[in-house]
Amino acid sequence: MLSSLILLWIGFGLLFFLFRTRRPKNFPPGPRPIPIFGNLLQLNLADLLNDLRKAPHNMPIHFISIFRDKCKLSERYGKVYSIYIGRKPAVVLNGVQAMKEALATQSLVFAGRPQDLMINHAGEFKGVALTTGPIWKEHRRFALITLRNFGLGKQSMEERILGEISYITSHLEKNAGKAIDPQILFHKAAFNIICSVLIGIRFKHEDEFLKLNIHYITESTTILNGPWAMIYDMLPLLRHLPLPFQKVFQNSANMRKSLGEQVSQHKKTRVPGEPRDLTDCYLDEMEKRGDDGSSFSEKQLIACLLDLLFAGTDTTSNTLLFAFLHLMTHPDVQERCQKEIDEVLGEKEQASFEDRHMMPYTQAMIHEAQRVADTVPLSAFHATTKDTRLMGYDIPKGTLIIPNLSSVLNEESQWKFPHDFNPSNFLNDKGEFVKPEAFMPFSAGARVCLGEGLARMELFLILVTLLRRFKFVWPEDAGVPDYTPIFGITQGPKPYRLGVRLRDRASLH
């Protein structure tokens, strides 16, 4: 018996020796990884964002001597530190200084994407958000130009957004005096707005295509930065097992199929040279390029549509959900916004995006809602495109980079009220709107969000229009508000009910 135990311990010792993780020379410091698992067993995967700030939970005994309970990782190791995803090293960036030096100063060096994660496999290595190299550059340039041509930042886009807002307004008017569940309402609006640009279609709010695809998006984004995705990334041997992460692949396949049907319809009805939407523009571009060996293809088009649908739906809608949660529970902020909106719009029938320049407090509130919403806390993971140095450390080519945007949006040295919802974070002493450099909800550098301009316009027009028409109140029977987000690639608030009241019409003039 004793000899068997000795042999077992020797076997474990050899296993640990053979698979031990060697930290590269002058690599950022971090918690010691466990062979094979890396830091998987030390992280609370249900609350990963908190663990990137604090010492890992469930630490093995030999870690107790290294960390004090609740010690923050960034305080222990600095603003740039490393963790291991299985045997792969990853560098976590925290704070404005590290983020600027990496994503802005060395923008292209940090513009790569890791290619062996679940999110890449679900996207079949296509699209624009997760590709790298020439394919990414070609398609990002095409998307930016096309979105601009289809009205991004122009009156035509305002009209699309205001048209969709009318359906939200109608729904709220029917439910005035009640408390409603808003969870899907803003997702439907954001989905329709981006669909109008991508495939030229607006779906009725009862449409099964719309409801089904929103379900696919919300379910997938929750899984993709959750514990099952981390397990998928860290333990490749488990990837083909029927575990919950397989839902992401099923959802992506279903969405690609339905988008493929939309592309087929466009091919039948399009008039070359007269594009109705981004899909027509892409098909025109494919036709123009012919067989020149470019990366433009029908599969790539479908992947781009999928990318933009994901990016354009969940982030904006979750920000709106956070905004109304805080507006209900901060009635003084809501009333001050409404007063400013009434004064600026006066007798105008509709708000315009240009009106934002005369609404500093409302602008501050919207940006503060984005800050506290922190909808994409870890951005999309980056990778280095060549060997480089960052804040004194050597970072090898191909290293996975995790930009902790949450650390910037809550950095105590950068904000007057880092842990509270307070529009004063975006106002100077004169009451003028200012945007601190730590405001990075859309990331920064070469990989900054493609849809930033559209999101900004949507948030302003939706919030201003609804605040002008309605008062939002926290339901009396709703208990204590819970601002704790549900973590995911895009995080949203826990479900709540939205109390809706019509404002006194006399106060609107």
TrEMBL record:
InterPro entries documented for this protein: Cyt_P450, Cyt_P450_CS, Cyt_P450_E_grp-I, Cyt_P450_E_grp-I_CYP2D-like, Cyt_P450_sf, Cytochrome_P450_fam2
Required cofactor(s): heme
Pfam family, one: p450
PANTHER family, alphabetized: CYTOCHROME P450 2F2-RELATED, CYTOCHROME P450 508A4-RELATED
Organism: Synaphobranchus kaupii (Kaup's arrowtooth eel)
GO terms, biological process: organic acid metabolic process; xenobiotic metabolic process
Family the UniProt entry places it in: Belongs to the cytochrome P450 family.
Gene Ontology terms, MF aspect: heme binding; iron ion binding; oxidoreductase activity, acting on paired donors, with incorporation or reduction of molecular oxygen, reduced flavin or flavoprotein as one donor, and incorporation of one atom of oxygen
Keyword set, alphabetical order: Heme, Iron, Membrane, Metal-binding, Monooxygenase, Oxidoreductase
Places the protein is found: Membrane
One GO CC annotation: membrane
Protein name, per record: Cytochrome P450 2F2-like
